[in-house]
Write a structure and sequence with these properties.
Elements: E1 2-7, H1 12-24, E2 29-39, E3 42-51, E4 59-70, H2 78-90, E5 94-98, H3 108-121
Parallel strand pairs: 1-4, 2-5
Antiparallel strand pairs: 2-3, 3-4
């Protein structure tokens, strides 16, 4: 099984792409997630859509809008509201985790490997086979 983060970006248009992608393939969605972190003095949130693995191919994409959203529990915002609306429409809960900020990793790929390890350990995604 190959699991890979696909970063869409941090802005509004990127979030709209994440939402559209999710609405076009609702049967493929495994989880909706929010990763909360603190970068400097700011609390930020990454929104993630975890897809079910492809068949054939065993590729599992995790689409992410990385650290582009203000922490919604301190500052309610339209972007997180849109994600909550998606969750409601798809009858999915948003799984919320607190994670390290991406900037502490030397490379972005190391950050994503760290997150994949956390998701595997908590059994949100399957271990490598």
């Amino acid at each position: 099984m190959i699991q890979r983060f696909i970063e869409l970006g941090q802005g509004y248009s990127d979030l709209y792409e994440l939402l559209t992608l999710s609405r076009c393939m609702p049967e493929r969605i495994q989880h909706l997630m929010a990763f909360h972190t603190t970068t400097g003095e700011e609390k930020r949130t990454s929104l993630v859509v975890v897809m079910k693995p492809t068949t054939p191919g065993d590729f599992q994409p995790l689409y992410i809008c990385r650290e582009g959203i203000p922490y919604p529990h301190d500052i309610p915002n339209k972007r997180y509201d849109l994600f909550q609306s998606l969750a409601k429409d798809l009858q999915k809960d948003i799984i919320e985790l607190t994670v390290q900020p991406s900037h502490i990793f030397g490379e972005r790929e190391l950050f994503y490997q760290h997150l994949i390890g956390i998701l595997r350990m908590n059994r949100y995604i399957a271990p490598m086979s």
